[in-house]
Amino acid sequence: MGIVSRVLRWPARVMRVMYDWVLAWAETRQAVIALFILxxxxxxxxxxxxxxxxxxxxxxxxxxxxxxxxxxxxxxxLGGMVGYLIGAELYEVVGAHIIGFYHxxxxxxxxxxxxxxxxxxxxxxxxxxxxxxxVFTIAGGACHIYFPTLVIASLLSRGARxxxxxxxxxxxxxGVKSFIDRYFNLLSVLxxxxxxxxxxxxxxxxx
Length: 207
What we know:
Layout: H1 2-8, H2 12-24, H3 31-42, H4 51-60, H5 65-89, H6 91-101, H7 105-114, H8 119-128, H9 133-142, H10 147-172, H11 176-205
């Protein structure tokens, strides 16, 4: 919760300007490219999640909602790979500055220690929930976790997150946008809890 609370302290005015700037891309011809770049950048340094643009684009063109989710997933996973590279090879030069920019220095040690446990679960949690995904991709590289673990966990969690958003809009229409905007963080946390319970039950049943 400490990491989430740190991010929520970001100056409201700056965040609002960036949010509106991202949202404005939905009405341009470059919207698809912007969505890919946003998903890519958010995985390593940018603060605004691609869900903002994904929701706007999916509402505007519901028939392409799942395609937009796929673009977001690919961009985000590739960005996560770059975050891993930053942590593994450029932490002192680049990674430390990104962590400092978000004032997460005190949480960094906790994240690094956590990677000594279940790296897959940590990356999946960061990829799906409001936990800053970029911190965990950079930390994954700094801790030299098994690279395929990062890629697979990112692909599953980021894909689940974006396809869930697009799927809800495709099924329920524009009316679901305000509901997602208001409760997305809560919905993502609840879904991840169910995911963890599912993994635990599967483990028990397969003994």
